[in-house]
Write a structure and sequence with these properties.
The chain has 857 residues and is an alpha+beta fold. The chain is 54% helix and 15% strand. Strands 3, 4, 5, 6, 7, 8, 9, 12, 13, 21 and 22 form an 11-stranded mixed sheet that branches. Strands 14, 15, 16, 17, 18, 19 and 20 form a 7-stranded mixed sheet that branches. β14 and β15 form a beta hairpin. α8 packs across α13. The longest helix has 40 residues. The protein is globular. The chain starts with 8 loop residues before the first helix and ends with a helix.
């Protein structure tokens, strides 16, 4: 005799879904968050990769074939270009050449890269912004970087220094700037000039092209192998010995090279991907366990009417799989939509990002299937536990779920996970690379950190119910003084630690990821500033061409110009340390511009006293010294013993290894005349640098300086040097920020479920005289407390692991905590979670005392 569908186990689950969809929404939302986080991390990786490829590749999409010189050493000249253009099937062909030239007219050394480009048409790699593109001899277009750094505009003139054909001396070639362009296919960070191939060849004094880009006519189907082979063979016959490759092959090669260049950036995003996967598994498992704990009475009734444990467990697993697949599809689509929004949003803040043109099918399918598998695995353990529930539970009141998983076993599991996380973290810390260690496996170490972080997050989930009350007692002291609503809100959250932990852990996931991303990127940005301060501490550096000393009055003459500031003269000489040579300098590290970016690894850079020395990272590691140790240096056979005041996290400015006060360098017997002078522009921006450059040129002009004896170098523009880091920061923060918003939706859903389950409690409070507004405030404050708990737990977990990630990714990077940003994230999170409880709070405040008191669970 067949059993009616409502009497079957699976039918009862469907009926429960229809009767109380809120409970299933909680589990579905946890899985949706998991799928969103995982595929969001995939999208972040795809966006970073697409951005790197788009910015650094040099072959436009319209290029069908690329012709390069073969192995016979024969160049591609104008004759070869004409032969390619006459080949049947070729619509357009342009010759490419790359070069560069120093610029004359200033004592400050400047350099302009040169690139051949038609300027118009489908094969052009530049877009005109101002003026006109060169159409004849003596004209040149410059990119925005050259216009900004050198103060150029249409109508300006430049003098290029071109080597003579015999290699003896240089020839001055004056050109006029006809326009300003922006590159559309390559990174536009270096000052570059553009002109059509023949005109640029005359400027450079060359007639050979490095490659010829070919575009075929519209009717030629280059994706058909026969057509490709046919056209390739025609070009080979037209230009014997030339190497012909498809544009797709060249673009793929450029993409591989670009991705290899951005390896560290992509590895950092991969870390977030792995963390997202692990954390999503843990959160989904925790949510399923708590939801099933609240369904004990229903499961007990099914056991009482004859459902077997195996059938009950199977029905729960099927339920989890269906919910998981549906949530996976929703999460993937949501992450894909948000990923498509990232580039336009980033563009609003001045960052150019690129998103993949289509949904990555393999990653999407794997994420959906993985979410379904995650649901099955997450539901397996709680379903087996729930299926063994005693039928006697049917006679008891509905469980709140607070006792589920809160016993000794869960505590021991949490402690074991915490111990494992600590051991793995200690192992990675003890294995951190030393300066100069090139064999360190950073990706393997980052994987170890991720595993440790996963165990730590598992410990947070397991120990969450026991952590809620201590954390709550510490952060909720002011709320207890705000009246009955505040005290009841604290009591409501503290009275259900299991529920509070399940909600807070989802919030903590987003806060942990966002806080870690902000902290890691702030630290790496601080390292980038340090690196720039080391490589280019000042706008200008002047030194003697013959490595001798400079005129002692040079610094004073430069300082007399109001266009220059922070003029500093210093000495740098070779000394002997043990049996090796090194460079010692009296450059004041505290006086270097952007000195706040020069930090010490040990000791302090402030107030360097006589008899003390600052040592760079390599020499400190090789000598095994820290602040307070002693080193001996020898100059001209005279040794001097110095106390280490500080060690640097990396290299020293201008190649210096040891930095001492000027008096100590004089005590060694070094000549008092400086070997270098640095200066900054008094005014920021292009105008300030241009005026400062003229001041340097005026100072060095004249026979008293010995024309050409002093070399003046200008530091490259600092803007744009951190584009890769900013790209990573923008992408990761936007994607993970959306993850926090999804977690806030989880708070709203859980709050709504709580209001339904606590209807009798709210009714009793109303009957005892608590106003509807007070109930509204109570529920709102409870939701805000979920944000506070999640924020505290997330930051407590994220910041220490951020420190370890920074140390693994770049040992020399100073750890920087963006306190302001983290505080803003924390405050915004509390406000968002409070706002998420608005509708549930409104529903609770409207609960009728009579109906609520009469309600029977």
């Amino acid at each position: 005799m067949s059993t009616p569908w409502r009497a079957t186990v699976l039918g009862s689950q469907v009926a429960e879904l229809l009767r109380r969809p809120g409970r299933f929404t909680a589990t579905g939302l946890s899985l949706l968050i998991a799928a969103f986080v995982v595929f969001g991390a995939v999208m972040a990786q795809q966006i970073v990769t697409a951005t790197v490829v788009e910015k650094f590749r040099g072959t436009p999409e319209t290029v069908s074939l690329v012709v390069t010189p073969g192995g016979d050493g024969k160049d591609l000249g104008e004759a070869g270009l004409r032969a390619v253009r006459r080949t049947p099937g070729v619509t357009e062909a342009v010759g490419r050449m790359e070069g560069g030239s120093p610029l004359d007219g200033s004592a400050v050394e400047r350099y302009l890269g040169l690139s051949a480009d038609p300027g118009t048409g489908a094969l052009a790699k530049v877009r005109l912004l101002d003026g006109t593109y060169p159409g004849g001899p003596g004209l040149l277009a410059v990119n925005t970087q050259a216009a900004r750094e050198y103060g150029l505009a249409p109508g300006s003139s430049l003098t290029l220094l071109r080597p003579e054909p015999d290699g003896e001396g240089t020839r001055r070639v004056t050109v006029e700037v006809s326009g300003v362009v922006r590159s559309t296919a390559t990174n536009d960070a270096e000052p570059t000039g553009y002109a059509p191939g023949p005109e640029l060849g005359r400027l450079l004094g060359v007639s050979a092209y490095s490659r010829i880009d070919v575009r075929t006519d519209v009717g030629t189907d280059l994706r058909t192998g026969g057509r490709v082979a046919e056209l390739t063979e025609r070009i080979r016959q037209a230009v014997p010995g030339a190497l012909v490759r498809s544009g797709d092959a060249v673009r793929k090669e450029e993409a591989r090279e670009a991705v290899a260049e951005a390896k560290d950036t992509l590895e950092l995003v991969t870390v977030f991907l792995v963390v997202a996967v692990g954390a999503a598994v843990l959160v989904a498992t925790s949510t399923f366990r708590i939801v099933f704990a609240r369904r004990v009475r229903q499961l007990a009734l099914l056991r009482a009417i004859g459902a077997t444990s195996r059938r009950l467990a199977a029905a729960l697993v099927v339920e989890g799989a269906v919910v998981g697949l549906l949530a996976g599809v929703a999460g993937v689509l949501a992450a894909w939509g948000c990923g498509r929004l990232v580039p336009p949003v980033a563009g609003r803040f001045g960052h150019e990002l690129f998103a993949p043109s289509r949904l990555p099918p393999a990653e999407a399918v794997l994420t959906v299937l993985g979410t379904g598998l995650l649901a099955v695995l997450a539901v397996l353990a709680p379903s087996l536990t729930a299926s063994r529930v005693s039928p006697l539970h049917a006679l008891r009141s509905a469980a709140s779920g607070e006792g589920a998983g809160s016993g000794v076993g869960r505590t021991l599991l949490g402690l074991l996970c915490a111990a494992g996380a600590a051991l793995l973290a200690r192992q990675q810390y003890s294995g951190l690379p030393q300066p100069g260690d090139t064999g360190y496996d950073r990706f393997g170490a980052l994987t170890g950190v991720v595993l440790s972080g996963g165990l730590a997050f598992l410990a947070l989930i397991a120990l969450g119910p026991r952590l809620v009350r201590p954390v709550l007692s510490a952060v909720a002291v002011p709320l207890r003084r705000t009246g009955a609503a505040g005290r009841l809100a604290v009591a409501g959250v503290g009275g259900a630690p299991g529920r509070a932990a399940s909600v807070s852990v989802v919030v903590a996931l987003g806060v942990c990821l966002v806080g870690s991303a902000l902290t890691c990127l702030a630290s790496l940005n601080a390292y980038e500033r340090y690196r720039q301060a080391v490589e280019a501490p000042a706008d200008f550096r002047l030194y003697a061409r013959d490595s001798e000393t400079l005129d002692r009055s040079l610094a004073a003459d430069l300082a007399s110009h109001p266009e220059l500031s922070d003029v500093t003269a210093f000495r740098a000489v070779e000394v002997v340390e043990g049996t090796r040579g090194a460079t010692i300098s009296d450059l004041d590290l505290g006086g270097v511009r952007s000195g706040v970016s020069l930090t010490a690894r040990t000791g302090s850079l402030d107030h360097l006293e006589p008899g003390h020395v600052v040592v760079d990272a390599d020499h400190a590691h090789r000598l095994g010294v820290r602040a307070g140790d002693r080193v001996t240096l020898t100059y001209g056979g005279r040794p001097v013993q110095l106390t280490v005041a500080a060690t640097l996290p990396g290299a020293g400015p201008y190649g210096g290894n040891f930095f001492v006060p000027a008096a100590d360098l004089t005590r060694l017997g070094v000549d008092a005349a400086p070997t270098a002078v640095t200066a900054d522009a008094s005014e920021d921006g292009v105008r300030g640098r241009t005026r400062a450059q003229r001041a340097v040129t005026d100072t060095l002009t004249g026979p008293e300086r010995g024309e050409g004896r002093v070399i003046a170098e200008a530091a490259g523009g600092r803007a744009g040097e951190s584009d890769d880091l900013e790209t990573t920061a923008t992408t990761v923060i936007l994607v993970l920020g959306l993850t926090v918003l999804v977690a806030v939706v989880g708070v709203a859903t859980t709050a709504g479920l709580t209001v339904v389950e606590r209807g009798r409690e709210f009714g009793l409070l109303r009957a005892l005289g608590l106003s509807g507004a007070a109930v509204h405030r109570m529920v709102t404050v409870e939701c805000a407390l979920y944000g506070v708990l999640g924020g505290v737990l997330g930051l407590a977990l994220g910041v220490p692991y951020s420190w370890l990630v920074v140390r693994v990714a770049q040992t020399s990077a100073p750890f920087s905590v963006p306190a302001g940003q983290l505080a803003a994230v924390f405050a915004a999170l509390v406000l968002l979670t409070a706002a998420a409880g608005t509708l549930p709070a409104l529903s609770a405040s409207r609960t009728s005392p009579t109906v609520a008191v009469a309600r029977s669970e």
